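so my prof wants the structure for this chain in the tokens format not the other one, which i didnt know existed until like an hour ago. anyway here's the sequence
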Amino acid sequence: MNSTWVSQSATSRPLPAYLQRLARGLTLSFLLLAGAAASGPVVDDDFTRAALAHNQGRHADAEGIYRRMLARMEHSGHDEPGLALVLNNLGAECHLQSKTADAEAFYRRAVKEWPRSPITPNGLGTTLVNLAGILRRQGHVDEAAVLYRDSLKAILPVQGADSLEYAGALANLADLLRDQNKLEEAQRFAEQSVKIADHWLGAADPHLGHKLRVLASIYLALGRLDEAQALCERILATATGSSNSARADVAATWNELGEVALKSGRFEEAGRCFRKSVELWQQHPAPTPHMMAIATNNLAQTYRRQKRYDEAGPLFSHAQRLLEGSTSVHQRELASILGNLAGFQAETGHYPLAVATFRKAIELSVQARGDDNADVALLRLEFAALRRAQGHYVESVDLYQKAMPVLAHAFGPDDQRVQQSAADYKRCLKEAQAHVVMMK
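here's what i got, hopefully its the right format
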């Protein structure tokens, strides 16, 4: 979760931005009204008390203040210039407490109100980013992509194409495009985001962390491992302070470094990085379970690759427990962990368990990402291979047929995974035909 504070005076003069990285792919932006404003001193005092509660981590208290403000405005009988601002901040406080349905409703109302608001002219872009973050986590990536692009259009005439606000929106869009495997476009936006932030903050500023990590993750997906590692090392070298956000930044970056090492085949190094990430999350004053679960899962995967099954098994189970019972916001992570657990169960000969876990992983992944997502297709291919090995050819063929068009669309016909899946599908059909003949 990436929290961006943009404090604005009544005349909309920007004050310094404060960036906090908690998890990839979600940005919450809070617009705080400072100083005298058209809304009056009572409202300004409420904004101050809500901001204080937020800074102290008392999000339920901040939500209560904003709800009371909203109720007064709705019963005032006249136009309220601060209504859009209250709706955005109320949505953000709900969002931080995983009340996603309430948060989405408030963000959607704020989007409609901003064009009528005389204050905080960049507010529309902020709310669009917030709303896009929720939709992305729900698997509505196409709508989220449209909103991220709309946020760029809203920010451009107000802040300009060289502003930190524009750089933040570019990073969010790049992060989503990476998930959609649109890597060239993602790289272009991420590099532009880092260039802008470098200009304003300086290359050694720790607030660059989120943008650098987005770019590092894209380089990782492109196989540009040395560049990805260099960016992660840059984040660690500039990390300063003991705030919760700074500590979260460091923990998340160690996980990214582990992914680079794992993809490079440096398993011992990967294990050290993932263990460091898990340790830092365990020591964090306000740990986020899904980030700890991701690092734990990655450490388990590393041990699995090394055939250290006795160590991998408990870690997979622990990662699963960290997210089971969590809100739908973390369904993507839980689906990925279950997919890895299913592969581990199959690899260690626990086939009935593996079948059940694969089914659950695919169900959750479809709910979180959509049926035409490449990650869902790859999960189906892995399950298809298991069912084929077990002689369940009808189900295996069905899984191949669902997965192959999605992969071809996502990666192109020349991709090795696409060609391998086509070859496996042909072999599966031949084996199924031979099985029918043998049965006769």
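also thought this was worth mentioning. The two ends are 58 Å apart (CA to CA).
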